[in-house]
Amino acid sequence: MAAEMQRFVTSEDDDEEMGMDVKEEDDEDDDDGEKNIESPPMLGVDGGLASASSNNRFVHHQQYQEQPTPQGGSRRCRPQEEKERTKLRERQRRAITAKILAGLRRHGNYNLRVRADINDVIAALAREAGWVVLPDGTTFPSRSQGCNLQCLQGARPVGGTCSTVVTSSSSHIPAQQTPPISLRGISSPYQNTVDYNACQMKSVFVPTSSPYDESSSIRTNSSPLLGDGGDVHNDPLLGGSIDSLDNKQVDISTKLQERDFAGTPYVPVYVMLPLGIINMKCELVDPDGIIKQLRVLKSINVDGVMIDCWWGIVEAHVPQEYNWNGYKRLFQIVRELKLKLQVVMSFHECGGNIGDDVCIPLPNWVAEIGRSNPDIYFTDRAGRRNPECLSWGIDKERVLRGRTAVEVYFDYMRSFRAEFDEFFEDGMISMIEVGLGPCGELRYPSYPVKHGWRYPGIGEFQCYDQYMLNSLRKAAENRGHSFWARGPDNAGSYNSCPHETGFFCDGGDYDGYYGRFFLNWYSQVLIEHGDRVLSLANLVFEGTCIAVKLSGTPWWYKTASHATELTSGFYNSCNRDGYAAIVAMLKKHGVILNFTCAGMSLLNQNVDFSEALADPEGLTWQVLNTAWDVCVPVASENALPCHDREGYNYLSEKAKPMNDPDGRHLFSFTYLRLSPLLMERHNFLEFERFVKRVHGEAVLDILA
Q: From start to end residue, where is composition biased (Acidic residues) (predicted)?
């Protein structure tokens, strides 16, 4: 290595001697309308720079000094002082280049030739980052061509971008080259570290076509690792560099190695059971089939399963009459197979959302109350009711046959705890997730498909039932501005864009006195609802882990207002951290945050995140770090079914972020969901491989 480095430094000095007098910079020459002409260095057959005689250099230099101008006469020589300054600048640039290349050769396991044409270096680095470089040098991001690069490589874009950033785990790249990260929605102009470093570094390098060393580390910064990349040898867009000697194209197909998770911390893996596993009569559907599937899951060391306990099934007909029969049978099967259980207290309706294949409404007796008093449901500005869950305005209102909504939730949880006491005592139930809103998530139902919402609409505020309006009126009176007791009248509709509204546009009313008052009240109602229900859940499930599901809404995250988050109840505009107060409430109750970025569910549908100024990666980064910074554990689950290698790679990276300086990782991961498709041989082998990696076990086909 020392000899190789010596040859590299020597070659750089030779380049200086040969071309320094030719390559000069003089902005003042623009007045003469002339350009400095520099002959490009020639590549020898061995890849080195061809030597030039001292006489040739002298003649070329003389031609440069006495080059005639279009107006006649000779060009005057530059002052010697300026030449020396130019030489000094070039030496400094070359010294920086040499250090970067040497450090990454030594620590990054890159097999670079000593003398590399800078065009090859830049082109290969761009391809590694997910860009397309044509033979004539034309370069463009692959996503602008419908992510052609990823499709040809057998990978799909993940996280809202097609680029992949790869660095060494012990890289010596200076800290000042790290791109500034925007947490507040006004994003950095650089999409990832490659974009930023390309603007900061004068010289760069890439590995040659030889595979990485198996022990090398791969970091992902703004984009996940996409896998092995596929075969690009025969594609004219993805081939290697241009040989300057004979203009023949050379393949530089770089095979990206997957990260090796062997020896990393153990993250438990659970599998979510089918939604219709318990029917409306609270009977277990197809117990024999479930036993077979659970045995298969057990054979690959899955830790346990997650099951929804639906309020609409258990307390379906009469208040405080609970039927747990189907769940008892299921829990016994799970215990016999020595699996763990995560149980969801599902106080919402099932059906109408992405992935819902059954319909489970709220209890019949609740629906009867709703027909005579529809204000028990969330309501939008037009008066449309949403029966997916109960309005938080009735948390303390005795409108449910003499009980408040919070008392109804409390009685349900107490019944469950008493019915399954033995499963708590032996530790088989490892976690209780308490449903706090639509889809069991702590948020407002601000973007219901049943009311016509379509991505990337901003959604609407859901505060127009009489109970929520009464709360708003009291808050306005306490503030001394009773005329603020109203919802915004210029916030658009479900499918509006922020710039189309007077409330969410840049400089809009959201940041005015009234806007700040309203958004603070709206988000505080969400936090108070979670606080009330979790206080009672802690009483019921003392000694058991409790979790709350939070779903991120990343579209319009790169705007100042963060409109979709505001309508969902997260006061996360560019001048606020809307998740800190929520996380503080969770920490108060010792609760685990189960975070899933809702925008990720759109990745398989070829959604263009750029048009909606979405940033799933940025939102995920913000929420996870907000929780981890105050020691709140974070669990997660995938938003849509995943069966391919690239998707599993992404989930693995999110479970154990490699670029986290403190080595933090998920508390647990729940896979969505058990199905016949998952049980197909190829899909199941991929899932088994994923489980091993998340468990921190070695995978033999790590280079496959």
A: 11-33
